[in-house]
């Protein structure tokens, strides 16, 4: 999402994100982990602050929360803190391995939400979600993440899922992300001795969704979520709708959130101190938003340039909310085509049908944006705990 990097090196920007979703389990007693944390905090805190000051230059316009290198464990609302005990300086190094950097941080009782120079990072007590676009290399983050998780929280990987849509500009990717085969090879090595399996939904010569999953057979079980995850991927955005994502004195992260009514999208209309929303407007254009509603997370990323326009929404919440969220984004951005992917909840084998999510809201005879266009489902695929449906918007005859 870092438009300054894009404009200096490329005529386009790869909006499609690579998504790592990793669960951890405690590999040793919590009191041992906390003891090591306290010892390390005393010895390393000043050094980590110096490192953070170098890795977080003022030009990044960091929020006040993100300027510190760590958050005191006493501010955590969980018994041990888990992965949230990993200090800011460590997350800086992890992100650096993935060719991105931290811009902002917000938190609630359940999660630390980071906006990155290329998309987002969410850190729960036992789970990390790294979502990055452009020419980033999130798979390269795994070795450092494993090391820091063990050092600061005594945790090891229990399950991992890597997934992405087919790249718009695959030739521009950096290894191991030049191909799904390359990604699978590096992932298999990174998570060993966990056993993994790969799936491709759709034809590799057309629109498709790549998934790699691995899990441990250890008796320790990571906490699971009972909620599915929905990914909405949009291409060919209406240029009359994307002007608000060009940074001006009037176009700000706050104004975008108000225009798109993102607080309602995240909170579902309720008021709670566990609902937090944070956005970032890039220079000269581009927008990212992270939202939390208790343990549910939401993230939006928009690349508005007409020759490579792209937008995505990812949300983990009750599936009943998905149709309204899809409707809101389609009406706001008017894409020419889009895809919806749904991941089953971790403790369920049932995958919500993405075609049904869309078509229950829009029949084949109903325009989705009041501009004379209708939604047409062009393909459906399901494998590896995921389902994908692709759609185009065509003019009514």
Helices and strands in order, then pairings?
Blueprint: H1 3-9, E1 18-26, H2 30-55, H3 64-67, H4 88-97, E2 102-107, E3 111-116, E4 119-124, E5 127-132, H5 142-153, E6 155-165, H6 180-191, E7 195-201, E8 209-215, E9 229-235, H7 253-259, H8 262-267, E10 275-281, E11 287-293, E12 296-303, E13 310-316, H9 322-333, E14 337-343, H10 354-359, E15 373-383, E16 386-395
Helix pairs in contact: 2-4, 4-5
Could you explain the architecture of this structure?
- This protein is α+β, with helices and mostly antiparallel strands and 397 residues long.
- The chain folds into two domains: 1-223, 4-Layer Sandwich (S-adenosylmethionine decarboxylase), CATH 3.60.90.10; 226-397, S-adenosylmethionine decarboxylase, CATH 3.60.90.
- It is 26% helix and 31% strand.
- The chain contains ten helices and 16 strands.
- The chain has helices at 3-9, 30-55, 64-67, 88-97, 142-153, 180-191, 253-259, 262-267, 322-333, 354-359; strands at residues 18-26, 102-107, 111-116, 119-124, 127-132, 155-165, 195-201, 209-215, 229-235, 275-281, 287-293, 296-303, 310-316, 337-343, 373-383, 386-395.
- An eight-stranded antiparallel β-sheet has the order 2-3-4-5-1-6-8-7. It has an eight-stranded antiparallel β-sheet with strand order 10-11-12-13-9-14-16-15.
- Strand 2 (102-107) and strand 3 (111-116) form a beta hairpin.
- Helix 2 crosses helix 4 and helix 4 runs antiparallel to helix 5 (142-153).
- The two termini are 37 Å apart.
- Mean pLDDT is 82; it is low at 2-10 and 29-79.
């Amino acid at each position: 999402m870092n438009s300054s990097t894009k404009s200096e090196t490329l005529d386009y920007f790869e909006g499609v994100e690579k998504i790592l979703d990793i669960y951890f389990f405690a590999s040793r007693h919590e009191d041992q982990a906390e003891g090591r944390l306290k010892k390390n905090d005393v010895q390393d805190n000043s050094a980590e602050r110096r490192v953070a000051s170098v890795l977080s230059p003022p030009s990044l316009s960091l929020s006040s929360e993100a300027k510190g290198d760590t958050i005191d464990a006493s501010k955590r609302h969980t018994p041990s803190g888990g992965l949230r005990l990993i200090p800011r300086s460590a997350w800086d190094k992890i992100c650096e391995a993935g060719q991105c950097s931290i811009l902002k941080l917000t938190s609630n009782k359940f999660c630390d939400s980071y906006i990155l120079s290329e998309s987002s990072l969410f850190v729960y007590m036992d789970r990390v979600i790294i979502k990055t676009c452009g020419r980033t290399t999130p798979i390269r983050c795994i070795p450092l993440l494993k090391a820091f998780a063990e050092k600061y929280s005594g945790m090891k990987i229990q399950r991992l899922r890597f997934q992405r849509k087919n790249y718009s500009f695959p030739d521009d990717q950096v290894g191991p992300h030049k191909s799904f085969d390359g990604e699978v090879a590096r992932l298999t090595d990174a998570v060993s001795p966990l056993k993994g399996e790969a799936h491709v939904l759709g034809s590799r010569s057309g629109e498709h969704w790549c998934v790699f999953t691995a899990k441990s057979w250890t008796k320790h079980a990571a906490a699971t979520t009972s909620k599915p995850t929905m990914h909405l991927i949009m291409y060919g955005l209406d240029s009359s709708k994307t002007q608000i994502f060009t940074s001006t004195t009037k176009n700000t992260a706050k104004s975008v959130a108000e225009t798109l009514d993102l607080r309602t999208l995240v909170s579902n209309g309720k008021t709670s101190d566990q609902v937090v929303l944070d956005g970032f407007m890039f220079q000269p254009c581009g927008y990212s938003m992270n939202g939390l509603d208790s343990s549910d997370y939401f993230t939006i990323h928009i690349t508005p340039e007409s020759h490579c326009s792209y937008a995505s929404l990812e949300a983990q919440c009750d599936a009943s909310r998905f149709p309204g969220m899809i409707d809101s984004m389609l009406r706001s951005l008017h894409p020419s085509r889009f895809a919806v992917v749904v991941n089953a909840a971790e403790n369920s084998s049932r995958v919500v049908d993405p075609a049904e999510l869309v078509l229950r809201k829009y029949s084949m005879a109903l325009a989705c944006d009041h501009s004379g266009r209708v939604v047409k489902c062009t393909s459906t695929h399901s494998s590896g705990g995921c389902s994908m449906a692709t759609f185009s918007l065509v003019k009514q005859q």
